[in-house]
Amino acid sequence: MRRILVLTVVPLFVATVLAAALLWPRGGSPQTDGGADVPRYPGTVTRVVSEPCPPVPSVPEGTPRVGDGRCGTVDVRVDDGPTAGQQVQTPVPDGPGAPRVEVGDEVILVELADPTDPTTSNWNIAEHQRGTPMVWLAVVFAAAIVAFGRWRGLAALAGLAASFAILLTFVLPGIGAGRSPLLVAVVGAALIMFVVLYLTHGVTAQTSVAVLGTLGSLVLTGVLATIATAATHLTGFGSEDATTLSMFQGDVDLHGLLLAGIIIGSLGVLDDVTVTQAATVTELANANPGLTRLQLYRAATRVGRAHIASTVNTIVLAYAGASLPLLLLLTADSRPIGQILTSEFLAQEIVRSAVATLGLIAAVPLTTGLAAVVTAAGRTDATPSTDAPARRPQPDRSEALAALSSPRTVGSDEPDQPRIAPPSQATDRWPESNRSTDTAW
């Protein structure tokens, strides 16, 4: 069985590496003109002066209000750049999404040239500096994973770094270079799967089963996503980000990009399910080597059903959480609910969630069946294994009830002749705290 796994997994890995080499972007992704690069400098707020805003001329009723009317000036010390140490004055940030600043805040300054007089410039606060809090958050994140998972947690961090490296060096540049987004996503997801699973869980038969289950589910997810997006006539212009991308880089296949997003988004959840199912079958077989393939499959599938029942809700809530502004905007829509649900914006999220869930459901029987075949290899289904431990004798019910209802005992010289504790000692403490209760039972 190990030979069969090697002869199956190794060619798939070689094919993935060759496909990645052929699709690897050469020369980098095309550069887009995103406008002039505005200089940005770190600074520290030293003083904030608030003052009443001047009266606003009357506006027609129903006109949306922009900003919250914050006026005044902010003094900021420039911490880096050609004007380091200089005190500059900026207006209080105002408008949608403007940061609220206080004395001591570390901010990012931008220097804007005056269009009427290029020799003068104006300073404005763009946003807060977030580098230090994010570094500390990353340190706590890594420390918690390593403290709990130890060497496996360290391997998980290495797998996470490898995933981002593949996304940033292959998947995104490949799509930006004009390659097929669906093909790049499938190859990139397979490459991530091979690296992460074997790096995190080791090169074992159990991991190989999880790899095969994940790869099969990914292929099925890609087929289902292609059919579903074609049947619902989704174009990929279902978000503002996609529309903006089409303006800066018009040759990107947004429909293929939608399919690529479904596959990449499904990979993380598929890894979770396939690894869990493979590990469940292995643990069941170790706990009771007498279980047949069919018994292993049925028992592990029951675990998989419970896992899927919770994971389906996880997928839907994850997509809903990422699309809360969109959902809130749609609730204010006056159109009928049927038109809202079938609109491009919401239909895209529904298709994404449904396809990911279908691929997830398919991963359970596929991985569980493979794991049952591999784990039970070399044994016959008709007879239990000769190495199976003896079954524990079932105690008589009346004896168990008598043991529960009798007074507690203290230690005695003879293990088979326990003494009844005196009333004064019966409620003081458990007899011999360092003694296991398994012997008495």
From TrEMBL:
It comes from Micromonospora ureilytica. This is Membrane protein. It comes from the Bacteria. Residues 47-70, 380-441 are annotated as: Disordered. The chain crosses the membrane at residues 131-148, 155-176, 182-199, 211-234, 254-270, 308-330, 350-374. Residues 389-399 have a biased composition (Basic and acidic residues). Pfam families: YibE_F (PF07907). Keywords: Membrane, Transmembrane, Transmembrane helix.
